[in-house]
Amino acid sequence: MEPSQTDTSTVLTESRDVLYGDPSQDITLQNVYQLLINMNGRLTSIETGMTQVTQMNRTLSTLAKNFSELKTKVNEVESKVQKINVRCEKSESEISQIKTQHGNLDKQLKNLHVNNKEVNNNLQSLSDFMDDFKVKHDNNVKDVKQIRSSVSRVANDLDDRTTELRSEIKSALSGAREEHEELRNKVIDLQCRSMKNNLVFTGIQESEHENTEQVVKDFIRKELHISDWIELGNVHRFGSGARAGKRGRPRPIVTRFIFYKDLARVLSNTYRLKGKSFGVNQQFPDEIEQARKSLYPLMKKKRAEGCQVKLVRDILYVDGEIYNEERNVEDDIAMNTQTDTKMSHTPDKNPVQKRKRTTTPKHC
Q1: Distance (Å, rounded) from C-alpha 129 to C-alpha 151?
Q2: What average pLDDT is seen over the chain?
Q3: Contact 213/221 with Cβ under 8 angstroms?
Q4: CB 14 within 8 A of CB 35
């Protein structure tokens, strides 16, 4: 490019000289012709250069377009690179956390190794202990077997001895019960004997500072119509009831008769008290009195049936025989059973037979 520019400047200078004149040269046709030839050559070369410039412009346009696309791609690459940088930063933080966790895991693994050693040591100690325990257990089992055999022998001996003791205690208790029952009956009999001459008067009103003996004598004279002299022993009120001056059932009076014939005479006249609020009864121990109370309903029932009834102490006599409730119930059941059997068969095959007399008390 530099030689062409020099030639062009030379041609332009010569052209200026031709047009405006140069005092050192003369203007001739030869000079003008030569100038035109030179200008033609230079224009040809300029046209050639313009073609190259056009091509260069096209090339530059293409380069500019490619550069724009390249810039776009570079921007995209830069955005991707930024994203990659962000991811890298996150990855670095995660890697840092992983490193921290890895360090913690290393510490934990070290601790686990230490604990594992301790566990192994403990397991070994436990294994040694179990071996010792097994040996001791085997020895204990042998000892227990020996003790069991000894205990079994002792238990057998104890069972035999216990059986003997039970039989002895049973016989002793049986004898003691019999003896106790005998003594109890004797005591009750003695109490009955001591109370044989006692009568209990009920329903007689109590007055303050009363003479109880005189009250009883007046009662016998007025209510029982016995005017003869009766010798009395100890006379007094007992038990619970309304005292003098208070409302309620008065306390009973127990009276001891010196002569039993006077007591019998008083009892024989008690029928005069029927329908009145007074009562005269023989005195008995509590055991006998409770037994008599349980026999009163049966006594009334048998009397209503027309039987001859008599109550002596705690024994009920029906038609002159001692009444036994269990035996009488069994006798009634047997009689009813025999009656049902006779009614369920024909007379030809099972003729009626008379019931044999038994030793049970007579029914009314």
Answers
A1: 31
A2: 80
A3: no
A4: yes
